[in-house]
Task: inverse folding
C-alpha cells in the first residue's frame, strides 16, 4: 500500500469516527438537556393535568346531578326560578366535557364523552319540556315526563357513562406514570451505552486526526485555490470573475454605484506559440499577469478568462477612470520585453473598456460589450484602447 492509499484510508476512518463522535456527543447533550427539561415539565404537566382531570371527573357528576335535582325540585315546588340554576350548570358541564377531550387523546375516553353528550342532549330535550309545562301550570304533565322510562333510562345511562369516564381517566393517569418510568429507564440505558461508544470513537478519531489533519488542510486549501484561480498565472479564473461580476452588479443596482470592465489580450500571441513554443507563450502570459497585478488596486479583480484573454473588474470606477487605467497599463506593458533563448520578444496588448449602465441586465451582457470593444481595438491596429459606452 503506497503513502497516498494509506493517507486516504486513515482519512476515511478518521472522518467516520470523528462524525460518529460528534453525533453521539450532540445526541448525549441533547438527550441530557431533554431529560432535564422533560422531567421538570412532566412533573408540572402531570400535576396540572392530573389535578384538572380529577377535578373535571368529580365536577362532571356534580353538574349532572344538580341539573336533575333542579328539574325535580322545580316540578315538586312549581318554582320556575330553579330554571336559572339549571341553566347555570349546563354550560359548565359542556365546558368540562370539552376540557377532558382537549387534555386526553384516548379513543375510549372520546367515545365515553360522546355518549355523555348524547345522553345529556336527550335529557336536555325532556327537561326543557318539563320547564315549559311547569310554566303553563301543568305539574302533573311535568311529573309524568320525569317519571317516564325515556328520561329515567337516559339518566341511568348518563350516570353510568360518567362513572366509566372517571374510571378511564384514572387508568389514563396510571398509564402516564408507567410510560414515564419506561422512558426514563430506556434513556438511562441509552446514555450509558452511548458514553462507552463515545469514549472509543473520540479516542480513535483524535488519534487519526492528529496524523492527517495537516495534509488534509493543505489539500483542501489547494482545491479551493484551484477552483477560483488560474493554475498558470495565479490570477483569478473565469468562474470567480463571473461570480464577482454578478455580485458587483447587485451592489451597483442597490447602492447606485459605478463599476467598469477592461478586457485585453496579447497581440500576435499565436505567433509567439508558433515561433517559440507553448512554454514561451506560458512565460509571456505569466509576465503579463505580473505586470498588470502591479498596476491595479487591491479591490480590482484581475482574471484570465480564456487563452490569452484577460479581464479586469474595477469597482467604483466610471468609464473615464477605466480608460485612464487601461492606457496606463497598456503603456507599461509596451515597455516590457520577455527574453526567451536570449531573444527579446516585444509585449503589447489590445484593450476594450466599458462601464456598467442601468440598461445592462446581466454581467454576461457587459462582458460581451467589452469583448466587442476589444475586437474593435484589434481592428484598429492593435496595441491600443477602445472604449464603448453601452448607452450610446
Result:
Amino acid at each position: 500500500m503506497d503513502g497516498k492509499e494509506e493517507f486516504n484510508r486513515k482519512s476515511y476512518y478518521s472522518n467516520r469516527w470523528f462524525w460518529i463522535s460528534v453525533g453521539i456527543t450532540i445526541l448525549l447533550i441533547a438527550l441530557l438537556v431533554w431529560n432535564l427539561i422533560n422531567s421538570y415539565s412532566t412533573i408540572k404537566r402531570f400535576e396540572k393535568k392530573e389535578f384538572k382531570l380529577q377535578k373535571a371527573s368529580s365536577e362532571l357528576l356534580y353538574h349532572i346531578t344538580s341539573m336533575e335535582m333542579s328539574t325535580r325540585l322545580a316540578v315538586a315546588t312549581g318554582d320556575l326560578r330553579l330554571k336559572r340554576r339549571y341553566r347555570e350548570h349546563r354550560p359548565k358541564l359542556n365546558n368540562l366535557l370539552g376540557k377532558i377531550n382537549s387534555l386526553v387523546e384516548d379513543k375510549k375516553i372520546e367515545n365515553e364523552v360522546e355518549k355523555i353528550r348524547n345522553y345529556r342532549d336527550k335529557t336536555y330535550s325532556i327537561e326543557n319540556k318539563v320547564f315549559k309545562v311547569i310554566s303553563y301550570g301543568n305539574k302533573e304533565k311535568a311529573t309524568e315526563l320525569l317519571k317516564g322510562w325515556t328520561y329515567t333510562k337516559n339518566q341511568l345511562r348518563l350516570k353510568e357513562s360518567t362513572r366509566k369516564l372517571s374510571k378511564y381517566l384514572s387508568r389514563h393517569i396510571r398509564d402516564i406514570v408507567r410510560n414515564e418510568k419506561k422512558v426514563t429507564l430506556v434513556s438511562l440505558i441509552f446514555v450509558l451505552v452511548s458514553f462507552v461508544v463515545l469514549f472509543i470513537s473520540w479516542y480513535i478519531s483524535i488519534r487519526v486526526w492528529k496524523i492527517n489533519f495537516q495534509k488534509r488542510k493543505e489539500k483542501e486549501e489547494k482545491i479551493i485555490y484551484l477552483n477560483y484561480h488560474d493554475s498558470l498565472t495565479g490570477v483569478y479564473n473565469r468562474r470567480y470573475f463571473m461570480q464577482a461580476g454578478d455580485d458587483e452588479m447587485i451592489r451597483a443596482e442597490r447602492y447606485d454605484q459605478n463599476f467598469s470592465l477592461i478586457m485585453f489580450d496579447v497581440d500576435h500571441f499565436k505567433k509567439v506559440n508558433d515561433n517559440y513554443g507553448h512554454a514561451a507563450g506560458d512565460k509571456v502570459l505569466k509576465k503579463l499577469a505580473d505586470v498588470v497585478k502591479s498596476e491595479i488596486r487591491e479591490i480590482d479583480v484581475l482574471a484570465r478568462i480564456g487563452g490569452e484573454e484577460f479581464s479586469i473588474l474595477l469597482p467604483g470606477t466610471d468609464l473615464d477612470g477605466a480608460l485612464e487605467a487601461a492606457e496606463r497599463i497598456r503603456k507599461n506593458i509596451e515597455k516590457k520585453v520577455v527574453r526567451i533563448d536570449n531573444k527579446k520578444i516585444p509585449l503589447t496588448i489590445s484593450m476594450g473598456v466599458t462601464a456598467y449602465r442601468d440598461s445592462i441586465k446581466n454581467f454576461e451582457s457587459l462582458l460581451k460589450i467589452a469583448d466587442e470593444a476589444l475586437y474593435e481595438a484589434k481592428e484598429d491596429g492593435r496595441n491600443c484602447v477602445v472604449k464603448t459606452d453601452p448607452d450610446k
In short: Residues 3-198 form a domain with the Four Helix Bundle (Hemerythrin (Met), subunit A) fold (CATH 1.20.120). The chain has two domains: 3-198, 236-388. DSSP finds ten helices and eight strands in the chain. The beta strands are 236-237, 259-266, 301-306, 309-315, 337-340, 343-346, 349-355, 385-388.
